[in-house]
UniProtKB/TrEMBL annotation:
SMART domains: FCD (SM00895), HTH_GNTR (SM00345). One of its GO terms (molecular function) is DNA-binding transcription factor activity. Keywords: DNA-binding, Transcription, Transcription regulation. It comes from Vibrio maritimus. SUPFAM superfamilies: GntR ligand-binding domain-like, Winged helix' DNA-binding domain. The keyword Transport does not apply. Residues 19-86 form the HTH gntR-type domain. PROSITE patterns: HTH_GNTR. This is Transcriptional regulator GntR family.
Amino acid sequence: MGNLKSSVNKGVKTKIAGQTQDDVVYCHVFDAILEQRLPPATKLSEEALAEIFGVSRTIIRRALLRLSLEKVVDIRPNRGAIVAAPSVEEAKQIFKAREVLELAIIELAVEHATSAQITECRQLVEDEDNAFATNDYGKGLRLSGEFHIKLAEMAENAPLLTFQRSIVSQSSLLIAMYETSNNAHCSQDEHRELLDAIEDRDKEKAVSLMKVHLEHIRAKLNLDDSVASNDLHVVFSDVLKNKAS
């Protein structure tokens, strides 16, 4: 319980007016996953979370259910909830879905983004840059994900924003599991170039830049057949094959 407690408490914020108790729990756990303070396969004990947040287990269950609908938490019958741990094949599917989603979002962002939103995003990129410069990798990764969520807000399409929140969180899980180095975050220069294209209302350039950007993110992950596994049957598959022959 200690690891879970420190992981969640590190990101505790003041409750925002209008938030329900399960909103608060949801936001904190969501951020902890996005910042990789709760790594894949971490058990999310209802009892521990209820104690940490001072709420009932019913509230915790509601928050975990919301996270499970966004595919960042797995709820296992009779065994409780864990942070999701996508397989290699699932990771490939997630990134294909992200490609389709992000290209739709960037087109709409070019059409609808306001000057205020663009200015806000530029500050976000500066904060992201500062986080990585000071080796605060978790914060930098969260801000990188937040940048992509802000693009979805610019698109002015509520369903796309909902999908984007889920995809960004799932992508963070994939980075935690499959990154080849701590340089797997998005390029801040590419983020700035995307904002420039949006500000110029250049849809063709924005789409082209987003394609390259997504290719760079994907290239930094090891999603080939040599990825390490915590499945003993996978790790010792050669022994099983020899045993069967």
